[in-house]
Amino acid sequence: MGQDQTKQQIAKGLQLYQSNQTEKALQVWTKVLEKSSDLVGRFRVLGCLVTAHSEMGRYKEMLKFAVVQIDTARELEDADFLLESYLNLARSNEKLCEFHKTISYCKTCLGLPGTRAATQLGGQVSLSMGNAFLGLSLFQKALESFEKALRYAHNNDDTMLECRVCCSLGSFYAQVKDYEKALFFPCKAAELVNDYGKGWSLKYRAMSQYHMAVAYRLLGHLSSAMECCEESMKIALQHGDRPLQALCLLCFADIHRSRGDLELSQLKLHCLSESIYRSRGLQRELRAHVVRFHECVEETELYCGLCGESIGEKNSRLQALPCSHIFHLRCLQNNRTRSCPNCHRSSMKPGFV
Hints:
Elements: H1 3-18, H2 22-35, H3 39-56, H4 59-76, H5 79-95, H6 99-111, H7 118-135, H8 139-155, H9 159-175, H10 179-196, H11 203-219, H12 222-239, H13 242-259, H14 262-280, H15 283-300, E1 318-320, E2 326-328, H16 329-335
Antiparallel strand pairs: 1-2
Protein name: 43 kDa receptor-associated protein of the synapse isoform X2
Keywords: Metal-binding, Receptor, Repeat, TPR repeat, Zinc, Zinc-finger
InterPro entries: Postsynaptic (IPR001237), Postsynaptic_CS (IPR018293), RAPsyn (IPR052480), Rapsyn_myristoylation/link_N (IPR019568), TPR-like_helical_dom_sf (IPR011990), TPR_rpt (IPR019734), Znf_RING (IPR001841), Znf_RING/FYVE/PHD (IPR013083)
């Protein structure tokens, strides 16, 4: 496969990916990787695979493609490609919570000789480093890195980067218990999405809504928290974003716990833990949470109000409404209701499910 055909196939994969046909896009890009002899094209398709696996929560695969990409960059002997591939290595390790490795790769990026990509990617390097420092609870260093990333964004008029930094600052201030700022920054991110994000991926809206939900809950504004979390979960479900689904599920559980729905919060937390341990292949911990999940279902006698089946069945997605009633997601989709089928409160936005 030559250079022109490689470009065409990469573009085809991008079109499929942007239309939410993720698996088909992955098939196209994997075939390019197998058949293309164009090193630049291979480098670009590896970048696509890194991003796609990141958004799907497949972080080990993300790291695998990042490692192959850096080998390709070394073959090309191009400093710009090296910088981009080291950044992808940093991001991969950040997602896997290997924060010391993340910081090391970020420092490698910053230590590379000046390149054309340095201005464009420097802010992203600082953002990734800030996220790693935050993961290690090194708050002063995290804040310094976020502020540096924000300066990059402002100096280069990079509103997409500014949006991402604002979301990370929301997480930062939530951890240091400055809840007003924890809300201010994701609200700013949401404004950026509304003003500039028509061509952006919906993940940016989902991220801002999730961080707003966390801040609203910490401030005690539970109805606003639920509304934002619903919006974020809606997008996460549409795009198969498993990591964001897990975060939203945890946020839902926190909201219900704040409302005093303790049994429901336990159920959601066991469901979340099951998903995490399953993805990591930790079978003993997985079995323990599956057993506890079903015990919680039996204890609370929770059943889908539409089909009558237990909500604890394997591989069934659930939807918790603001009124705290739970249904199978598929049942709500088939029923196409705009209010809770149990209490008939108008608690669902049109088209939410």
